[in-house]
Structures are given as C-alpha cells and as structure tokens.
Amino acid sequence: MPPIVQATDGIDPNALRVLITGFGPFGKYKENPSWLAVKPLHNTILYTDPPKDLLTPSDQAAMITDEMEEFLRRPQQIHITVLEVPVSYQAVLSTVPGLHARPPILPPSNDPSMPIPPPPANGYDFIFHVGVAGRGPLRIERIGHKNGYRMKDGDGEYAPIVHLPKDPIRDNPDAELERMERMLVGASLPGPSGPEGPGPAEVMEIPAVPNRGFGKGYENFPDELSTEIDVPKLIVHLKENGIDQVYSSMDAGHYLCDYMFYCSLAESRRNVTPQEKFKERSTPPKTTPVLFMHCPPVDQPLSTEQVTDAIQRITLWVCGRQHQP
User: Fold this and answer.
1) Which run of H or E residues covers position 90?
2) Angle formed by the axes of helices 89-99 and 256-270, to 10°?
C-alpha cells in the first residue's frame, strides 16, 4: 500500500489535483463504507512517474526537447481532496456541477477537522467517485445512465420526473390502437350483477410509471455516457499489482451511484478547456477524467484498508497517464 502522507507544507502549484468523493450515512450504514475508505486520503499527497507503456517505438523516435525530457524525469506530485456527499438526488444535482466549475465550488466540510483546501482555479485533474454496493469484489463502472431511476433516496425522495421526447405508446398508432381495443374488450365483459342483470365491466387504465432522471440542463446529453478512462487496461494493471478482487461493470445500478456518475460525466463534458503541455501547469486536461467505483460493505470481503489501497493505486495509474507528452 502506498504510504499516506499528509500535505503539511501546502500544495505544490504544479501538483495534479484529485477530488475523491464518498457517500454519507444511509439505511443501516451510520458511516458509509465508501466514506470510511475515502476519508483517510484527505489532504494527502502521492508521487507518480509516467508508466513505461506510454512511449511506443514510434513515440521514442520523435524529437524530445530538453523541456519535455525534464518534465518526464521529475516526479509528479498528486494532491488529494476528499468530499462526503449526502445520499440524495438533490444533493447530487446541487453539488456535482460545482465540482467541475472553473474554479470548482465545493460545499463546506461537515467535519471541522477536515477543512477543504482551496480548489485549483482551472479545475481538478481527476474526479473519482466511490460508493457502496453489495458483498463482493470492487466494481469499476464504465457507463452512467440518464434515465430509469425508480428508487427513493436516503431522504425518501425520488429523482425528478423527466418527460421523454417521445412516448412509445402515444406516438405509435399501432400500439395506441391495440390499447384501445383492449379497453373495448374489457368494456364488453360482464360486470357486477344489478337489478337489471350484469352490467358493463369497469374499465381502469393503469397509469404508466413516470420516467425519472436528468431533465432540464441535460437535454443535449445522450442516454448513456462512458468514462474516457481505459477501464479494461486499469483492471489488468490492478490485477498485475496484487488487487485480484476487482472487475469492470456496464451497469452502475440506476440508483445514487449511477446518478452521481452520469451527472459527473455530463458536467465534465460541459466544461472543456484546452491543455498546455510541457509548461508550468496552468490548465487541466481537455475534459476532466471521471471514474466511479463500487466497494463492498466492510470486510465483505475487503477491509476498509484494502479499499483505500485500491483507491490510491487507481489514482496513481490515472494520474500517471496524464504525466506524459
């Protein structure tokens, strides 16, 4: 496990800045397992060198300037800030857009012993979300979903109702005709008997379950968004370095974790800036890389320390791939 080193001397202005979120209490979890794993990393630093597989033979043949060589030779500092997010749809909608702002806007810390360091003016270099799932391995998500959120959050509230552009029933003449025929058949069936014999059956149409998810402000984003991080390659890297209990997933669950992931992916695409390479760091990558990982409850089977170790190693790998020409 990489050592956990507190940033006691302030933040290097050229450090890669990483924001890692965990969720707050809900249900049976007085302390969310995701927050237990994330919390120890607040205001800590890591150092990374570029991975060996960054330079292909054709790259090596390219002209490398003295400035580029110096850039690649020096260790790259990574500074980590962590944030606890309540388990509610409204908290996600009110918090996540600010995380991607330029400069980022973070809510105040709930813990006076964990003040939030000043965020980087040009945005974070990597935003990593962690949430709890059921018993089992770590699960690194690849896709966030825009619609289909049917479960109540930790406050007992639903996600916002979203009216889709087309109703598959109302906008399909054949489907609408079939629906009307079913209603007519139901009306012709005998109902309860009265003084004059059986009457027509009462016709009841069950209303459709409303779609819930992302509406205003997200109309131009697709139904699914994928992380730009190469998750299969990351999984291979983790397994090669002793983390076997991990796999990738295409379904983040259509609950708060999925909601957080999609919102963060959308906001990263909304806020795009150019990148300057081999200069004193002044701008983040073109889009901020976003990742979501599900962890199990504590000791089912991984301990909190094992999850924290995996978070560090993932951060090192993602940031190492930014420390490149």
Assistant:
1) helix 89-99
2) 30
- Rounded Cα–Cα distance for residues 166 and 168 (Å): 6
Question: Which contacts (CB < 8 Å, 24+ apart) does range 10-14 have?
Answer: 11/79, 11/117, 11/118, 12/77, 12/79, 13/280, 13/281, 14/77, 14/280, 14/281
- Residue 260 corresponds to which tokens in the numbers above? 């957080």
How many CB atoms lie under 10 A from the CB of residue 261? 27
- Chain length of the chain: 325
User: What value does the mean pLDDT take over residues 232-259?
Assistant: 97
Helix (H) or strand (E) holding 217: none
Contact 285, 322 (CB under 8 A): yes
User: Strands 197-200, 44-48: parallel, antiparallel or unpaired by DSSP?
Assistant: unpaired
| Cis ω before 103 (30° cut-off from 0) | yes
pTM of the model: 0.80
Buried b (16+ CB within 10 A) or exposed e, 142-152: bbbbbbebeee
Task: Convert the pLDDT of each residue in 28-41 to its tens digit.
Answer: 999 999 999 999 99
User: CA nearest 319: which of 117, 70, 17?
Assistant: 17
